[in-house]
Specification:
Elements: H1 11-18, H2 27-34, H3 38-46, H4 65-79, H5 84-97, H6 102-139, H7 150-158, H8 163-179, H9 182-197, H10 201-213, H11 220-240, H12 257-268, H13 272-292
Helix pairs in contact: 5-6, 7-9, 8-12, 10-11, 11-13
């Protein structure tokens, strides 16, 4: 039989001979084949990744096999993590120079290297988040408290520190964790942990409550007693603490954003009479520390 006769064709030859000379797929058909949505196809058209095909007399886009290949290539490159803007540039270069062009290959390699670095950064960030979640689970943390403070905070609560104090302390922790220096964070952590196990922690909580109860009708004798008791308790605390003694008013660290905000935060918790008494307590504690304790060593 004549091999050029259609009757002698094998399955592949027959299929080729009989296939439609002009394959025309509508948008939904192309989307289904390529595993994308019609909306995605429209977006590809809008940003220039996919050329406009001919339209039917009814106004429908009609796609051919090269359009299918184009969409599959875009989907593959996008699946690797390449931004659509970079995919467009790569495809334009491929259209102009061909896939074997060395310049295109070098640029593609550079894009892949940049993408690899970006993905490595994302993996590191995700790993960091997983570690944070693990710490929160292990410590029984809450949404408004960073890990590492939970045990000490619970101990302070058990020692009598009120809920208002706990809320304010959590605010201070959040501020310090977000804006403070490593030294600020370390000192706050140390202060909370030391206070939680301090033998006079209940006394500090009691003094704090007395300050909160203070108002314009509080007698002068009660105010003086509160100041005296608070100065003594805080002096003893700082004398026994491992924290640096705050005896240098000229310290520039008080002008840093974290310090200014921390002071403003503390100020927002107090009424005018409470603020006045609190300032007296701070001043007298600092004066006594400066007079009775040796100055910090200088380097």
């Amino acid at each position: 039989m004549d091999s050029s006769s259609p009757e002698s064709y094998g399955p592949a030859a027959k299929a080729f001979a009989n296939h439609p000379r002009r394959l025309a797929l509508k948008s939904q058909q192309l989307a289904d084949l390529a595993g994308v949505s019609v909306r995605t196809l429209r977006h590809y058209h809008q940003i220039g990744l996919l050329s406009e095909p001919p339209r039917s007399t009814g106004g429908y886009r009609l796609y051919g096999p090269r359009d299918v290949v184009r969409v599959l290539r875009i989907r593959r490159l996008a699946g690797s993590g390449l931004p659509l803007s970079q995919i467009g540039e790569l495809l334009r270069q491929a259209d102009q120079a061909g896939a074997a062009d060395s310049a295109e290959g070098a640029e593609f390699e550079a894009m892949l290297s940049e993408l690899d670095r970006h993905l490595a950064d994302q993996i590191a960030e995700l790993q960091s988040r997983r570690e944070l979640l693990a710490n929160l689970r292990a410590a029984g943390g809450s949404a408004d408290l960073p890990p590492g403070y939970v045990d000490a905070i619970n101990a302070l609560r058990a020692g009598g520190l009120g809920e208002q104090d706990m809320r304010e302390l959590r605010d201070l922790i959040e501020l310090t964790e977000g804006l403070g220096s490593a030294q600020d964070r370390a000192e706050l952590t140390t202060a909370i942990r030391e206070l939680a196990v301090h033998p006079n922690a209940d006394l500090v909580a009691s003094l704090d409550q007395r300050l909160r109860d203070l108002n314009s009708s509080t007698s002068p004798a009660e105010v003086e007693a509160l100041v005296s008791d608070s100065v003594e308790a805080l002096f003893q605390y700082f004398r026994e603490s491992s924290l640096p003694v705050p005896t240098t008013p000229e310290d520039p660290s008080w002008d840093r954003p974290h310090s200014v905000l921390a002071l403003s935060l503390a100020d927002s918790w107090l009424s005018a009479p409470q603020r006045q008494v609190f300032q007296r307590i701070l001043a007298e504690v600092e004066a006594r520390l400066a007079a009775e304790l040796p100055p910090p060593a200088t380097t």
